[in-house]
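Quick question about two entries, pasted in order.
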Amino acid sequence: SILINHVIRNSLINVITVIGYFTGVLLGGAVVTETVFAWPGIGRLLIESIAARDYIMIQGIVIFIAMIFIFVNLIVDITYRIIDPRVRL
């Protein structure tokens, strides 16, 4: 009971912060990984669009990745509120 109420709740805030941070790292690392291993994906599409100077595709991919990042940060903030009621949104 004490473990769940005090220890886990306080430590989950740090874990959720790291999960939100690593989501951005994974999105950035996808470009490198997909290019090196020739895997099809949004990172490789971004590199091919840059090489072909397809500006509309580049804008679409950047906006899509930004929307994912914003959505993940919103989920992290909402989860903070659920875990720690002292946090205000």
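Here is the second entry:
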Amino acid sequence: MTQMLLARSIALPKFSPSNVVSVKNNDVLDILDRVAALDVEVLITGPSSVGKELCAHYLHQRSQRADCAFVQLNCAKTPKDLIETALFGHGGGAFTSARVQGAGLIAEAEGGVMFLDEVAQLPLGMQVKLLRLLQEKEYRPLGGTRIQRANVRIIAATSAETARGLGEKPFFRELLSRLRLNMVEFPVLADGREEILFFSNLSQPTHEDPLCPAQCSE
């Protein structure tokens, strides 16, 4: 049954650019296929262990960026003083050991998808920088002198409580408002057991996606 659902061909309907959709009231794949067709940022919310990362992989595979890189960063597990360099790279001399400039994950994801797990754990200063990336499609590496353009789709994930502004960590309001324009909500286990089990039966995609080929960055 799962294989048949994954293999089907779907005529994608028009999807409003401002939607909050709940998995428990809709067919899982229909929702994800519609969201995947939009080349915009997406926020995935829900409790732990409901398949938010797998959902992000599926959105990538069903999008026009499927042949390009899928790069991910867990914002909660990355040391706060390393997140900016990890995401945006650095210029030469940005810090003691940085003799030459280094590219970050955003550059690695060029043409493809950057998945930010636990996005609400980003320091507020980094949230502001992420908002600029979403709005202007550009960023400045740490210690860099030049603005870099970016062609990358951001998919972010966080808990449902944080997405509603109730989490313990502060969430930059403008960033939250931007991400919530296209939000997929997963229910708690008691309300969405069928959908959660469905995701647990999907094949986990590889995490070691090849870098985006040259044509992806055009």
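Reply: The longest helix spans residues 124-136. The two ends are 38 Å apart (CA to CA). Hope that helps.
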